[in-house]
Amino acid sequence: MTVNLDEGDWFKSSHSTANGECVEVAFLTEGMVGIRDSKNLSGPALVFAPREWDSFTTDVASGKFSRPSA
After folding, report:
1. What's the CA gap between 28 and 54, in Å, rounded?
2. What is the count of structural domains for the chain?
3. pLDDT in tens, 11-48
4. Do residues 16 and 22 make contact, with C-beta atoms less than 8 angstroms apart?
5. Scanning 32, 33, 47, 69, which has its CA 20 to 30 A from the CA of 23?
6. Looking at the domain assignment, is residue 68 inside a domain?
7. CA gyration radius, the chain
8. Cα 59 to Cα 1, 3, 34, 45, 55, distances in angstroms
9. Residue-level pLDDT at 27
């Protein structure tokens, strides 16, 4: 499947800071979700199917990707 990344409405989190160290997310055609580096708009992007995105965001919210405490 080919997804046109230019058709997405890319946005940053409202928690982003002004230092430019951000990722952007876009909701693309056919329910796909794109993620890219805000400093490299024409660079590579990750694209998730709807089920993959839902699983990823659920795992983030549950702390699955939190760094282990030292």
Report:
1. 14
2. 1
3. 988 777 777 678 899 999 889 999 999 888 888 999 99
4. yes
5. 69
6. no
7. 13
8. 26, 25, 17, 20, 6
9. 94
- Structural domain that includes position 33: 5-12+22-61
pTM above the 0.85 mark? no
Residue 70 lies in a domain: no
CA distance 39 to 20: 7
Structure tokens at 36: 């890219």
Question: What is d(CA 70, CA 65) in angstroms, rounded to the nearest whole number?
Answer: 15
Q: How far apart are CA 69 and CA 47, in angstroms?
A: 30
Residue 12: partners with Cβ closer than 8 Å, 6 or more residues away: 22, 23, 24, 25, 38
Q: Cβ(33)–Cβ(23) under 8 Å?
A: no
> Average pLDDT in the 47-59 region?
95
Q: Are 40 and 25 in contact (CB under 8 A)?
A: no
